[in-house]
User: Which sequence fits this backbone?
């Protein structure tokens, strides 16, 4: 057998081996761990799942998801997906920060993305850990998908302040964690910037799944004069929106355009302070499929259209021009960094 002939067969064997290996290993797998609000929470979890799932299907990647029954499930759900061979694990929400950091440091060959957590020394990223790669913290195999909630909250507060007839506006919030605090701070500061005499009410419930309590607390704010209610926090916030609707008051949704996801209150919704979580999660999956998902912080803000107020829908012709103009000025100022929200970490 000639050397050329032998080399020919060597190449064929190598190619067949590569094909066989690809067939055995199959496509990469993307997995997403949802918080306790469930996959049909009309907001945070639902939209993150939607974006990741659709992007995985478009890229022909395997996909799986799980809903956490309680915070005690976070780490076990993540580790189960790692054991199943997930190549990218997406975790949804600030409360999963510690569990995600622990799993990421234990599995440096797996890529992770987390929504609403930017790791800093002391939070999931001790200064002594070599995988902390920057001054602000971070893990070498984790992409943080962050949002400037204070900016969109500021715009929502401007609108609420302008539309209020009583001079009192309210917000019912989930847990007192950074993303929610950013919403509340922006909302209140935006309202006061428009009308320094506005009274802003807020309550942190400490839970994202308690619609009954959310409704009761919003009803109390309404009794105290609030005529615009901002629901900030999953099903807890949804309860607040329902209270506003039933009382004939105005409401502002959160995270997604709740005109579509919560149609029961649609006639009362001025707008929603939206975070494009489906876009952020989808873009992370797309980047992963191309081998371009980088660790560090990827922030969605007013300047890059990663956040924004949803359309006014039924209120398009009812909102006075002066209010629309005020909101547009604020959005422009936030985008250009001329306006600061007043939020400090």
Assistant:
């Amino acid at each position: 057998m000639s050397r050329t002939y032998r080399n020919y067969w060597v190449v064929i064997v190598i190619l067949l081996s590569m094909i066989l290996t690809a067939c055995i290993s199959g496509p990469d797998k993307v997995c997403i761990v949802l918080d306790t609000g469930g996959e049909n929470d009309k907001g945070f979890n639902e939209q993150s799942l939607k974006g990741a799932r659709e992007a995985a299907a478009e890229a022909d990647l395997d996909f799986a998801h799980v809903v956490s029954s309680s915070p005690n499930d976070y780490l076990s759900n993540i580790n189960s997906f790692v054991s199943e061979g997930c190549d990218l694990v997406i975790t949804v929400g600030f409360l999963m920060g510690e569990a995600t950091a622990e799993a990421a440091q234990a599995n440096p060959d797996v890529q992770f993305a987390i929504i609403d957590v930017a790791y800093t020394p002391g939070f999931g990223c001790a200064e002594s850990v070599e995988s902390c790669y920057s001054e602000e913290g971070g893990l070498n195999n984790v992409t943080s998908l962050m949002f400037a909630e204070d900016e969109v909250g500021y715009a929502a507060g401007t609108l609420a302040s302008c539309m209020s007839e009583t001079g009192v506006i309210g917000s019912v919030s989930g847990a007192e964690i950074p993303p929610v605090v950013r919403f509340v701070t922006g909302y209140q500061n935006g309202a006061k910037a428009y009308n320094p005499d506005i009274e802003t009410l807020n309550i942190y419930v400490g839970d994202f799944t308690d619609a009954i309590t959310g409704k009761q607390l919003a009803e109390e704010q309404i009794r105290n004069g609030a005529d615009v209610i901002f629901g900030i926090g999953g099903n807890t916030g949804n309860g607040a929106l329902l209270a506003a609707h039933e009382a004939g008051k105005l409401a502002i949704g959160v995270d997604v355009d709740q005109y579509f996801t919560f149609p029961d209150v649609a006639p009362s919704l001025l707008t929603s302070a939206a975070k494009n979580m489906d876009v952020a999660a989808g873009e992370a999956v797309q980047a992963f499929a191309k081998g371009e998902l980088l660790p560090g912080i990827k922030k969605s803000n007013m300047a890059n259209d990663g956040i924004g107020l949803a359309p006014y829908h039924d209120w398009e012709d009812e909102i006075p021009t002066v209010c629309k103009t005020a909101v547009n000025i604020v959005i422009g100022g936030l985008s250009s960094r001329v306006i600061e929200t007043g939020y400090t970490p």
